[in-house]
């Protein structure tokens, strides 16, 4: 493609509101343009990369037998009422009403719609299992869109759904999809970790996230420094280390005011509410309560913090209060708690004796330095960008929406479902976060918009122009995608734009064109890495260079 004929509006300055490297470089390199907060147009360069990501996804989905379809983005509200998520999903769900007063949701995800499509079709075990997927624009009304494509209100997503007669069939599909996702991200060149995760508003049980490692990431990954264990911070288990009981158990005492004690003895109380209950959780003051673990312990879909400090409700419990404690308090006999409401400090607290705890459980966040849950090494933290997730949904949607089938014995049962998503536009940004330098992007060859950037230093020079035309034709005939900078711009502008765009290989036709000599080098090595080569050897040099790149 001739660059003079292509829409690539590069920018010299960094846009003021672009915080992340990917946001800055995609804007400056002419890959995207913002239309509104969290809403972007993909310009030709950016869309070429998107299509390459989609091609990799399609190849891996087709390889495991998943079929592509396309569902509408506008989803009838009735389907969301059937699943019970119309009121649960929250303000992120974009809602609209047509001229007839009928409500719709702009698809944030597709469980309801796909369940409605198959519930009258997959009505017998003979038609199972079944796997379908789509690549489609999704919508979420983010309160604070930020970091460009990483957190937008409109984004491109691949979502897949599988339907099964047995848990064993779902498990088989889950791990096939898991491995397909690994292949996708490896082929895209991402540095990533697959981590245990929470299903959140999606429902279901087993789930893994695929996290691209990046400092700008909004998720924290807990991983072992000596094994493959990795989990989202919310889901990382804590190995139980029961407190050794002191040799003497003392009676509970109250002292006026706040008494200074060692941090390890201090106990704190955290209050929550669910849709039906009030919940009190005790844990060591040096630890932080994990509300996701509390939610999972209760088996509920909603846990919200309550502003409440009194210890009296725990010492004299109300039947309406559910009381739990983190496993780290089990065995403690000398706990200390300062109750602000009374301005009293309780000492010699034995949680099992004094706090009316119904159950001890793992209810805190893991910390760096904790033992790895798999027994190998200690926990370290890293930042990640979620680019994909796989879920075992079970029968959450099929039961509520009446998606039933007849099993081999003629019994009616709900379809067992799996759900799997890849953030296509997020993957684009994650790649940019990992592949750039101070001058611009450095695309992995699997996703680069073009393989080669052919730069004619002075297109007004007939010899340079003639040689460039020949090389453009020859390299294209060899199967390389070539972007030819034939613009009548200053060399400094051309080289700056080339660094921004980040094609894997640069070929420069300059003052030695009359001698049939050009400069060739990998973008990642910058100008210092370019070397002079004779035109007759250029094809082999470029082929070898591309083979060496990731």
Automatic annotation (TrEMBL):
Q: Give the location in the cell.
A: Cytoplasm
Instruction: Give start and end of each Aminoacyl-transfer RNA synthetases class-II family profile domain.
Output: 38-444
Coiled-coil spans in chain: none
* Recorded catalytic activity of this chain's protein: tRNA(Pro) + L-proline + ATP = L-prolyl-tRNA(Pro) + AMP + diphosphate
One Gene Ontology cellular component annotation held by this UniProt entry: cytosol
Q: What is its EC number?
A: 6.1.1.15
Q: Which Gene Ontology BP annotations are present?
A: prolyl-tRNA aminoacylation
Q: Name one Pfam family in it.
A: tRNA-synt_2b
Keywords associated with the record: Aminoacyl-tRNA synthetase, ATP-binding, Cytoplasm, Ligase, Nucleotide-binding, Protein biosynthesis
Q: Name one GO molecular function term.
A: ATP binding
> Which family does the UniProt entry place this protein in?
Belongs to the class-II aminoacyl-tRNA synthetase family. ProS type 1 subfamily.
Protein's job? Catalyzes the attachment of proline to tRNA(Pro) in a two-step reaction: proline is first activated by ATP to form Pro-AMP and then transferred to the acceptor end of tRNA(Pro). As ProRS can inadvertently accommodate and process non-cognate amino acids such as alanine and cysteine, to avoid such errors it has two additional distinct editing activities against alanine. One activity is designated as 'pretransfer' editing and involves the tRNA(Pro)-independent hydrolysis of activated Ala-AMP.
Per the record, the domain comment is: Consists of three domains: the N-terminal catalytic domain, the editing domain and the C-terminal anticodon-binding domain.
**Subunit comment:** Homodimer.
Enumerate the PANTHER family for this protein.
Answer: MITOCHONDRIAL RIBOSOME PROTEIN L39/PROLYL-TRNA LIGASE FAMILY MEMBER, PROLINE--TRNA LIGASE
Protein name from the UniProt record: Proline--tRNA ligase
Native species of this protein? Sporolactobacillus shoreae
- What are the leading ranks of the lineage? Bacteria, Bacillati, Bacillota, Bacilli, Bacillales
* Gene label: proS
């Amino acid at each position: 493609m001739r660059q003079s004929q292509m829409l690539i509006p590069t920018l010299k300055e960094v846009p003021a509101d672009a915080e992340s490297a990917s946001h800055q470089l995609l804007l400056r390199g002419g890959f995207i343009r913002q239309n509104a907060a969290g809403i972007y147009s993909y310009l030709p360069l950016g869309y070429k990369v998107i299509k390459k990501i989609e091609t990799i996804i399609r190849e891996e989905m087709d390889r495991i037998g998943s079929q592509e379809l396309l569902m509408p983005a506008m989803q009838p509200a009735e389907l969301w009422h059937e699943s019970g998520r119309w009121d649960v999903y929250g303000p992120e769900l974009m809602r609209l009403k047509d001229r007839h007063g009928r409500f719709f949701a702009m698809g944030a995800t597709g469980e309801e719609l796909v369940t409605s499509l198959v519930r009258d079709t997959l009505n017998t075990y003979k038609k199972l299992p079944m796997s379908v997927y789509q690549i489609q624009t999704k919508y979420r009304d983010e309160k604070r869109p930020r970091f460009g494509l990483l957190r937008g209100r409109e984004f491109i997503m691949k979502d897949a759904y599988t339907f099964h007669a047995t848990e064993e069939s779902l498990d088989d599909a889950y791990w096939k999809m898991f491995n397909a996702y690994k292949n996708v991200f490896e082929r895209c060149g991402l540095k990533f970790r697959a981590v245990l995760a929470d299903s959140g508003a999606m429902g279901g049980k087993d789930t893994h996230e695929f996290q691209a490692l990046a400092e700008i990431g909004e998720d924290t990954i807990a991983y072992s420094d000596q094994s493959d264990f990795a989990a989202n911070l919310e889901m990382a288990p804590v190995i139980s280390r029961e407190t050794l009981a002191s040799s003497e158990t003392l009676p509970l005492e109250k002292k006026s005011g706040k008494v200074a004690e060692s941090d390890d003895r201090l106990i704190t109380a955290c209050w929550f509410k669910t849709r039906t209950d009030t919940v009190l959780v005790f844990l060591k003051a040096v630890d932080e309560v994990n509300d996701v673990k509390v939610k999972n312990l209760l088996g509920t879909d909603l846990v919200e913090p309550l502003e409440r400090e009194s210890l009296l409700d725990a010492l004299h419990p109300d039947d309406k209060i559910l009381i739990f404690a983190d496993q780290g308090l089990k065995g403690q006999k000398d706990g200390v708690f300062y109750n602000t409401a009374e301005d009293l400090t309780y000492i010699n607290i034995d949680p099992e004796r004094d706090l009316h705890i119904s159950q001890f459980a793992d209810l805190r966040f893991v910390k760096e330095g904790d033992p790895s849950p798999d027994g190998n090494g200690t926990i370290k933290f890293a930042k990640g960008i979620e680019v994909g997730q796989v879920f075992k949904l079970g029968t959450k949607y099929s039961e509520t929406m009446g998606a039933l089938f007849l099993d081999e014995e003629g019994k009616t049962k709900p379809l067992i479902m799996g759900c799997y998503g890849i953030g296509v536009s997020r993957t684009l940004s994650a790649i940019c976060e990992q592949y750039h330098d101070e001058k611009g992007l450095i695309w992995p060859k699997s996703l680069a918009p073009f393989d080669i950037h052919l730069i004619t230093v002075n297109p007004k020079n007939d010899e340079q122009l003639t040689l460039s035309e020949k090389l453009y034709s020859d390299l294209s005939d060899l199967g390389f995608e070539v972007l030819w900078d034939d613009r009548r711009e200053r060399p400094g502008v051309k080289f700056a734009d080339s660094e921004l765009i980040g094609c894997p290989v640069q070929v420069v036709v300059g003052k030695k064109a009359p001698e049939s000599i050009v400069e060739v080098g990998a973008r990642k090595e910058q100008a210092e890495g370019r070397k002079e080569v004779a035109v007759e050897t250029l094809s082999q040099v470029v082929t070898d260079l591309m083979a060496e790149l990731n």
